[in-house]
Every structure is written in C-alpha cells, then in structure tokens.
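Researcher: We're teaching a course module on how sequence relates to structure. For the next exercise, students receive a sequence and then see the predicted structure as tokens, so they can try to spot secondary structure elements on their own. Here is the exercise chain.
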Amino acid sequence: MTSDVGVLINTAIAILAIVVLIVRFRVNPVISLVVGSLYLGLVSKLGLDKTVETITQGFGDIMAEVGLLIAFGVLMGSILQELGAIERLVKHLLSLFGPKRLPYSMALTIATLLQSIYLDVLLVISAPLARSAAKRIGPLGNARMATALAIGLECGIVLMVPGVGALALSALLHVPLGKMLVWGLVLIIPTVIIAIAIMTFLFRRGFWKPEFDEQAVIGETVVVEADEKEAVTVAASTGSATSTQAPRRTGTSGSAGSAGSAGGAGDATGSIDDERGTTRQPPLIVLFVPLLAALLLIGFGAIAEAADWENKVVGLISDPVVALLVGLVGTCLIGRSAMGQPRVEKAIARGFKESGQILILTAVGGSLAAVVAAGGLGDILRGYFSANTVAPLLLVWVMAAALHVAVGSVTISAITAAGILAPIAPALGLDPVLIALAAGSGSLFAVHVTSNTFWLLQALMGQTTRGTLKSCTIGVSVASVVAIILLMPISLLF
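Model: And here is the predicted structure for the students to work with:
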C-alpha cells in the first residue's frame, strides 16, 4: 500500500512539474512533457534501465499511429489555404445563409470541415472575414462572430477528425479513427449550435457591452469586395491595448507567422490575392471534394466495421492513412491545375514547417502515457475506479478541465489527460471513444490568457481583454459544459 501511495504522489509531482515548467518558467511543452516523463520513470519501478526505452517506445508508437495522418492533414490544409478556399467559403456561407445565421454556419464549417488547417492560421484567415460580416449582423455582430469563431475552432481541434487533438486522443486511447470521426460529428454539431444559441441569448440580455468589450478602431481597412480582395490589417488597427496586453504573435510566431508564410494576416491573404487574378479558380465545391472524400471514406470504414462487413478492398481504401493520402493527392492535383506547381510546392513546404511541432507534441504525449502505464498507475487506480464509479465520464471531464485551467492549452491538456486515463480506461467500464470525447470536452473549459488563441482573437476581432473573456473564455467554456451534458445520454447507446 505504501508503494501505491508513492506511485500516486510521484505521478502528481510529475504532472505538477509539467504544469509549473510550462506556466511559470515558460519552458516549451515538448521539453516539459519529456522532463515530467523522465522524472516519473526514474522514481517508479522502471528505474534507470527502462525509463528512456519506455519514453522512446511510447513516442514511436504514437508516431506510427498518427504521424502520417497529421502530416497529410496539415499539408492538405496548407494547399487549401494557398488556394484561398477559406475566404471563398465564408463568402458563400454569407450569401447562402444570410448574416443572421452566419455565426452558426461558419462555426459548424470550421469545426467539422476545416480542421486540417492549423488553428492559428485558420483564425488569422477567417477572423477579418468574420469581422467584416459582423457589421451586417447588427450591434451584437462582433460578439456573436467572435464567439462562433472561438467555439468552432476549439471544439474542432479535440472533437473532430482530422483535428490535432482528436487524432492524438484516438491514438492514445486506441480508438479507431473512423469511430472517432463518426461519434465526434454526432457530438460536435449539437454542441456548437446549442453553445452559440446560449451565448446569443446572454448577449441579447445585456451580457455584452460594446463600449467596454470592443476597442475603438481607427483607420480600419477590413473590407469585403466582389473581387475577393481582403485587406487584413485588423491587428495593426485595434488600438494600443493590444500591443501592451497581447503577445506579439500575429506575424512573428512560428505558428501563425510561418503558417501564413508570411508573417501576418495581411500576407496570409494578400499574396494569394495578388496572384489570384491570373489563376483559374475552380468552383468552390471542387476545392473541397478531396477532403470531403477522405472524411467520407474514413466514416464509411467505421460504419462497415460496426456492421461487421469485412472486405479487403473496403478496408484498404477506408484506412485513414490511405483515405487522407487520396485527399492530399486530389488536393495537390486541383492546386496544380488552379495555381501552378510552384505555389503548390510553396504550400507543401509551409505545411512541413507547421506539422513539425504538432507531430513532436503529440508523440511526447505518447511518451507520458507509456511511462504512466508502465509505472503501475493503471493497476493502482483500477482498485479505486470501476464501472460503478459515479459519473465516470464526468470524472474524465473534470480531470481534463483542471489540467486545461492550469496549463492553458487545449491540445496539451487533452493529450496529458488521455495519457493519464489510458491505463485505467478498462476499469472505468467505458468505450474508449467516450473517454476520448469526454477528455476533449473537458480540455475546452476556460480558454484564458495563457492561450495564444485568446490573444489572436482579441487582436483580430478588435475586442478588449474583458470582451475576449466573454466571447472566448466563457463561450468555449459553455461549449465544454454542453458537450459533456450531451455525451451522457450518448453514452447510453454503447
């Protein structure tokens, strides 16, 4: 019993050390997770002999499962970005659904379809368009569009394939990717709709105060023109509050900057537009056919598996690696036809830069999971948790939420929570896909000032810190709570 207590204490110390390194000393999350894994291995029964071997094996196992999936997804998203597909899609949604329904349609599209595009890049591209459209919605347009963006972006990361968090959760908890796609889709659609409806209700009841929650904008040049030109200079025109409060990430960071190839929102769209006048633009649906085909193949494979229909050809083409490869090849061919091979190669090179940190972060999450499992934590916790544990899904949600409040990163908290929970998944008596979705839902709770998304949203949507706490922090937290509430009855189907 004493040794059990020691394992629990050392695991707690390792998790706390990871949080402190990331939050207090601003050590890169990859390094922090490896240091925490190393400590936990050395003080557990792994000792000096097996610690490094377990860390590297856990790293390799996760890379084998999702490495190609993440790379293919990011490359596909990078080409779609270069094609200007997102700008065209938002304008199409605006004309199709009208400004009043745009928050719902845009959030659902971002959450379910555009997760192959790196989050910071997607936000930098879509926020100026959302801000322009907000003027047509009315006085609450800015609040509603910012909230819709935040909810769509963050939910998509952890609940929808091929979101980075969803891929990592499925790998760590050994959930078939097709199954994660199908049930993630079932959960994310009502979650996004209900969360936006709740926030809209609150805004209309006086929760949003434009005079306090929106910054005075001088010389704003965000426009939406028929020729699809976007002058994205919001971050530079949101007032002095942004420069003093927010990290200067829009244009200098490795994530947003490199992903836009361009250091900033202006380059992310301006370079495309400069060349777009001489390129043939295919119909919008054609741009997304390869991505949609890939997702449909993965989903079809999950349905075939659930129906116990075994066919080697179906198994091959519905395998996530093959399906996403088909999507990537199709996107490359469309890109080559529309804008030429040099720009496709440029987009692929940018995609490789974006995927590096994502791949390593996901893989070191696997290292932590392997060390936690090998250290005996799962065997100990099985004695405390069982299928009869009160609200086991809520327990998973609370753990992920607590980690997110401490760390401030949706992806890191989801991966860390999954690493801890993987060894005790059988003891909880739950299907692993439910644990993955509960961990993803919990990791959405309280997106706050340690998140890069928070500051990018504030700068690009022209909000004060107080306003962003409402649109982003409270908005995504509402989605987190809605998701776990919806997941409870869904679990009865298993």
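Model: If you want an answer key for the exercise: Residues 47-82 form the longest helix (36 residues). Confidence is low (pLDDT under 50) at residues 217-278.
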